Amino acid sequence: PGHRIGATAKVARTFQNIRLFAGMTVLENLLVAQHNTLMAATGFGVLAVVGLGRYRAAEAKAIEKAKHWLDATGLTSRGDDPAGALPYGAQRRLEIARAMCTDPVMLCLDEPAAGLNPRESEELNQLLLRIRGEGCSLLLIEHDMGVVMRISDHIVVLDHGKKISDGTPAEVRADPAVIAAYLGEGED
User: Fold this and answer.
1) Is 6 helix (H, G, I), strand (E, B) or coil?
2) 106, CA 20 to 30 Å: which among 49, 151, 165, 184?
């Protein structure tokens, strides 16, 4: 059934509008992403009552994974800060780190560069390249062409829901249909 896809597909996503647990710390946001693993280590609470299970080992592993993503996103020094107190660009990176704590094989990103300044967009580029370098595939929905062109191996361009181009960044950049749709064309 469809409700089991999330547990087996190993796909994570981020949202166009950031959806962090603002009152929780940065570290807690990364640990909550690992809730299913931690609960399974306690026998879903039953073994924890009697002091059995593998919870301590699972918790240590979860913290190490969280530390890895804090480092990867440049948020290590902010680990104890409330997530809602982070600047906007850092919140974006935290949301990506939280998704990566689920160990996805594919990460779907909906407008991750929306609202970022050029420096933050560059930090995002570096993070996404690192994620891709660690073997996770990326599905990116984005309007920031600087991000798209640097991150993508293959691009599909839509104009009002209709596919107008499909290919490598170089092919898409040179496609007259893309130029007309996104840069406009003179009136004849």
Assistant:
1) helix
2) 165
Q: How far apart are CA 4 and CA 67, in angstroms?
A: 29
Q: What is the SS3 string spanning 43-106? A: CCCHHHHCCCCCHHHHHHHHHHHHHHHHHHCCCHHHCCCEHHHCCHHHHHHHHHHHHHCCCCCE
- pLDDT tens column, 2-36: 666 656 788 999 988 888 999 999 999 999 988 87
Concatenated DSSP letters for 117-182? -HHHHHHHHHHHHHHHHTT-EEEEE-S-HHHHHHH-SSEEEEETTEEEEEE-HHHHHH-HHHHHHH
**Gap between the Cα atoms of 25 and 46, Å rounded:** 27
| Helix (H) / strand (E) containing 9 | helix 5-9
| Predicted confidence (pLDDT) at residue 42 exceeds the cutoff of 90 | no
Check the CA dihedral 164-170-175-178 and report its sign: positive
How do residues 75-111 score in pLDDT, each as one tens digit? Answer: 999 999 999 999 999 999 999 999 999 999 999 999 9
Amino acid at 126: Q
